[in-house]
C-alpha cells in the first residue's frame, strides 16, 4: 500500500481530497474485508443502519462518518473476523468502528503533513433510524 | 498470499453488493461494496514457519486483536498462544504471568498508550529482549521514529495484509531484523 499521495492540506482543500478519501476507503475494504468498493452516485442505506464516526482534530478538524445498513455491517464484521455473520454478531459495532478508524487514519496518512498534526478520536458507533 | 480482490466469477458467485456512504465535511461519497468469498490458503502455503510461538496482542479493540491473531495464522506463523490485552497497563500485567515470544501493539489506546507501554517494558523481567511490533493507524514518519526510539523493532500500518505481517514478523522472529 502506498502511504502517501503527496497531497498537501492547503493545496485546494477538500475538493482535492475526494479521490484521496475514495482511495483510502477502497484500500481498507480491499485489504481488511476482501471487498471491492465501486463509487456510485448515491447510496440508499436502508434503516435501521449503523453510523461510525471518527473525529479529526488539529490541522484538519472535522468528523468522518461512514454509514451502512445492519446487514452490511454484520457482513463486514464477518469478513474481518473470518466468522459467519451470526458468529460475528457481538462484534459488529466494534468492527464497524474499526473500519471508520482505519479509513480516517489511512486518509490522513495520505495527506502530506497531516500525519503528525492531525489526531483521531476513538470511533463512536450509533445505530437507529433516519440518522 | 491474501491478495485483495477476485475474479468476476467471484463477484457473481457471491453477489453481495451493499450500499455504503461516507461523509467528511461537505464531501459525500457513495459506494457499492461487493464482498468476495473468503480466500483460503493453499496446501503448503501455511507451512513454512518456525517453531510455535506465543504472542501478546495489545489493542483496545477486541475485533482488531482477533484480526491480528488471524493474520498471524494466515501469515503461516504457528501460534501456540495468543495473550490479549486492551491497553498498555493490561499488557504489562499480562506479561508478568505470560512469557511471550513477540508483542504486537497498537499506539492509540486508553489508560496507557503503545509508546508508553514500550518505554515501560524495559522494567519488566519477562520482557527482556522480546521484540515489539507496532500495528497502528498512526502511520506518520514521526510516529514511526517515536516507536522505534522507544524500542519497537517493527511497524505495520493499518490497513494491512497477512503478507505484510509475515514480511515484518518472520525476520524478527528469525533474529534477522
Q: Can you give keywords for this protein?
A:
heterodimer, A: 131 residues, alpha+beta, four-stranded antiparallel β-sheet, 4 helices, B: 177 residues, alpha/beta, five-stranded parallel β-sheet, two-stranded antiparallel sheet, 33% helix, disordered N terminus
- The radius of gyration computed from the alpha-carbon positions of chain B, rounded to a whole number of angstroms, is 18 Å
N to C succession of SSEs of chain B: HEEEHEHEHEHEH
Number of helices of chain B: 6
Strands of chain B, total number: 7
**How would you classify the helix and strand content of chain A by structural class?**
alpha+beta
Number of helices of chain A: 4
- Low-confidence regions of chain B: 1-15, 40-48
| SSE pattern of chain A, N- to C-terminal | HEEEHHHEE
Rg of chain A, nearest Å: 15 Å
Query: Could you name the ranges of chain A where pLDDT drops below 50 across 5 or more consecutive residues?
Result: 1-7
Oligomer: heterodimer
The percent range for strand residues of chain A is 15-25%
What is the number of strand segments of chain A?
A: 5
Strand content bin of chain B: 15-25%
Overall pLDDT score of chain A: 84
What would the principal axes of the Cα set say about the shape of chain A? Answer: globular
Largest beta sheet of chain A, briefly? Answer: 4 strands, antiparallel
Strand count, sense and barrel status of the largest sheet of chain B are:
5 strands, parallel
Explain what the structure shows.
The complex is a heterodimer of chains A (about 130) and B (about 180). Chain A has about 130 residues and is an alpha+beta fold. Helices cover about 40% and strands about 25% of the residues of chain A. Chain A is built from four helices and five strands. Chain A has helices spanning about 15-35, 70-80, 90-110, 115, and strands spanning about 35-40, 50-60, 60-70, 120, 125-130. In chain A, strands 2, 3, 4 and 5 form a four-stranded antiparallel β-sheet that branches. In chain A, strand 2 and strand 3 form a beta hairpin. The N and C termini of chain A lie far apart (about 35 Å). The relative contact order of chain A is 0.23. Chain B is α/β, with parallel strands linked by helices. Chain B has six helices and seven strands. Chain B has a five-stranded parallel β-sheet with strand order 4-3-5-6-7, with helices on both faces. In chain B, strands 1-2 form a two-stranded antiparallel ribbon. In chain B, helix 4 (about 115-120) links the parallel strand 5 (about 100-105) and strand 6. Chain B is globular, with a radius of gyration of 18 Å. The two termini of chain B are about 20 Å apart. Mean pLDDT of chain B is about 80; it is low at about 1-15 and about 40-50. Chains A and B meet through helix 1, strand 1, strand 3, helix 2 and helix 3 of A and strand 1, strand 2, helix 2 and helix 5 of B.
Amino acid at each position: 500500500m502506498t502511504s502517501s499521495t503527496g497531497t498537501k492540506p492547503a493545496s485546494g482543500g477538500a475538493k482535492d481530497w475526494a479521490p484521496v478519501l475514495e482511495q483510502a476507503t477502497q484500500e481498507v475494504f480491499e485489504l481488511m474485508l476482501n471487498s471491492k468498493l465501486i463509487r456510485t452516485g448515491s447510496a440508499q442505506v436502508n434503516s435501521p443502519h449503523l453510523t461510525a464516526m471518527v473525529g479529526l482534530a488539529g490541522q484538519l478538524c472535522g468528523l468522518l462518518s461512514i454509514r451502512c445498513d445492519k446487514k452490511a455491517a454484520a457482513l463486514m464484521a464477518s469478513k474481518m473476523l473470518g466468522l459467519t455473520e451470526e458468529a460475528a454478531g457481538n462484534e459488529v459495532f466494534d468492527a464497524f468502528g474499526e473500519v471508520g478508524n482505519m479509513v480516517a487514519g489511512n486518509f490522513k496518512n495520505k495527506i502530506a503533513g497531516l500525519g503528525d498534526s492531525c489526531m483521531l478520536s476513538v470511533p463512536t458507533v450509533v445505530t437507529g433510524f433516519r440518522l | 498470499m491474501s491478495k485483495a480482490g477476485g475474479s468476476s466469477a467471484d463477484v457473481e458467485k457471491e453477489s453481495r453488493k451493499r450500499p455504503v456512504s461516507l461523509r467528511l465535511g461537505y464531501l459525500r461519497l457513495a459506494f457499492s461494496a461487493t464482498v468476495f468469498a473468503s480466500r483460503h490458503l493453499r496446501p503448503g502455503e501455511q507451512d513454512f514457519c518456525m517453531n510455535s510461538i506465543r504472542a501478546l496482542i495489545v489493542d483496545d479493540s477486541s475485533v482488531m486483536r482477533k484480526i491480528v491473531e488471524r493474520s498471524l495464522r494466515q501469515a503461516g506463523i504457528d501460534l501456540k498462544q495468543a495473550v490479549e490485552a486492551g491497553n498498555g497497563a493490561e499488557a504489562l500485567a499480562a506479561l508478568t504471568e505470560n512469557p511471550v515470544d513477540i508483542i504486537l501493539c497498537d499506539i492509540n489506546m486508553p489508560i496507557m498508550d503503545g509508546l508508553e507501554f514500550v518505554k515501560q517494558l524495559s522494567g519488566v523481567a519477562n520482557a527482556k529482549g522480546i521484540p515489539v511490533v507496532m500495528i497502528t493507524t498512526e502511520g506518520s514518519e514521526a510516529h514511526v521514529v517515536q516507536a522505534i526510539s522507544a524500542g519497537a523493532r517493527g511497524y505495520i500500518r493499518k490497513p494491512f495484509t497477512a503478507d505484510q505481517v509475515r514480511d515484518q514478523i518472520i525476520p524478527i522472529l528469525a533474529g534477522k531484523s
